[in-house]
Amino acid sequence: MPQTKTETQAQGQPQTKSKPRTLPSSALPAGPRSPWVVQTFGWIRSPFRFMRRAASRYGDAFTARLGGGGRPLVMLSAPEDLRTLLNQDDGDPFDAPGDLNALFEPFLGTESVIGISGDRHRRMRRLLMPPFHGERMRSYGETIAQISDAVIDGWPVGSTFSAQKAMQLISMRVILSTVFGLAEGERYRELERLLVALLDQMSSPASVSLLYFPLLRLDLGPLSPGAALCAGVPRSMP
Questions:
Q1: Domain span holding position 71
Q2: How far apart are the C-alpha atoms of 218 and 229, rounded to whole Å?
Q3: pLDDT reading at 55 higher than 50
Q4: Number of domains composing the chain
Q5: By the 8 A CB rule, do 198 and 107 touch?
Q6: What DSSP character marks residue 100?
Q7: Do residue 32 and residue 71 come from a single domain?
Q8: Cα separation, 122 vs 75, whole angstroms
């Protein structure tokens, strides 16, 4: 959730950098009152249903309690709120506490931009943002259309197929082409295979359950859930 910084010292005194503090529960938006375990399993089972139900009852901003201990997590959906949060992620009044995303380390590693905090996080974000602005985004339109057409041409006629898989494939190929700058080839196909496997692992309810309950992530031997999770995550890419 967003965090505020403590007030600076009185005028005339040396200012020191203070650690972010969490807002008191009384200052957070209302949200579901069920125990955090119930909320967590509801989120794991169907996150979109969980968010739709909470938003319909509590509005565009609500507080959920997910994961071990039920730490409060404020969820926002109003575009103006999201714009404010993203545009003011400079440590005052909001910061980006990467430690809250530590549960994703089994999939994203320790150097992911969402897993690091403070100035380091903002520096990495600045490096990543240029390809997603203005003319660069508009120039991707033709590439996205071509990739979409190629995937659609492969859809079976007269039989059902997974729309989620099809959209995932389009997204993955767009990312490989526009972000990684890769064209068709052996490295392209291997990266696609690894990334699709990673996304499939992350979307599995069983794997997601392990993320929110740290004790289950411990590798206690070949038959333990933690060992299975680690074995299913690609550790390197070509």
A1: 23-86
A2: 9
A3: yes
A4: 3
A5: yes
A6: G
A7: yes
A8: 21
